[in-house]
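URGENT: need a sanity check before tomorrow's submission.

F., can you look over the Ferrochelatase record below? I want to be sure the sequence and structure line up before it goes out.
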Amino acid sequence: MSSNAKPTALILLNMGGPDSLDAVEPFLYNLFSDRELIQLPAGALLQKPFAKMISHFRAKKVVENYRTIGGKSPLLEWTRKQAEGIASRLDNVKPYVIMRYWHPFADDVLREIKQEGIEKAVVLSMYPHYTGATTGSSINDFRRAVGNVYPELEYHLIEEWYNWPPYLDSLANRVKEGIELFHDLLQNEVQILFSAHALPQKFIDRGDPYQTHVEVTAHEVMKRVGDHFGWRIAYQSRSGPVRWMTPGTEDVIKWLAMDDHRCLLMVPISFVSDHIETLEEIDIEYRELAAEAGFHHFHRAPSLNDNADFLNAMAALVKDRGGL
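Structure tokens as predicted:
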């Protein structure tokens, strides 16, 4: 390849998170305003007024949650490290990150790519399991921005990779590392709980493949870890007056404790880096719940973050499916 050849942009799509405590409320407003993610009951016309009200009342509690993990979301930092790590494993690729509900937004990043004269891109959703609520919304937002800012851009989309073998290998390695956190004499007693982010049940009922994707990932990971461990799948972050996917993570923790299990390893399965759901919800809230329920030993498997095997897996995926 000529050294003068224009690079291909590698664009990672993710949810985003507040970069300060002051950003929490506007971040929540952006999130609640998205009807692809949350359809508030009053209809499209009142979505934004309701989003403004809900984000205002939710912000006080959410601010405190972010305060406990350092005052901001680490999601952008991790996603940038992932983008840089993946790009460094490929030829003539330049990394970018687009977030859905907080900076950097799609329009701004696409303007930068256009100004730099880059003509081709591979767009990688950082949600392994497809759902219209997250992957679909991020991709639709990207397509809208391309149409507005840079319609000439040629791009390949990678929308799901829940069954990509190198990714499964990497996640299995994190589970094995989590098991090693328990004393040798306790490891055979460990119960493994895969915890994915919940969706409203209506998403699944309308044919969204998210739950199936999560189940395939968990089964394939356990083939690599060893099926002699007891394991379950549950769904976390359920809030608000809608019918959510079941079972809830809190419920399964209590059920396992009632069956006299005392060693619990939680595995965040729908998240590829640390953020509020791992650092606060699992590490603090669920740890406390598990102790109250009767678990004597609790650990969380390390997140994928910028582990070399994960970055290798994603670079291979981009090369395989990205038209490079």
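My own read: The chain has a mean pLDDT of 95. The chain has two domains: 8-161+309-321, 165-300. If you see anything odd, call me.
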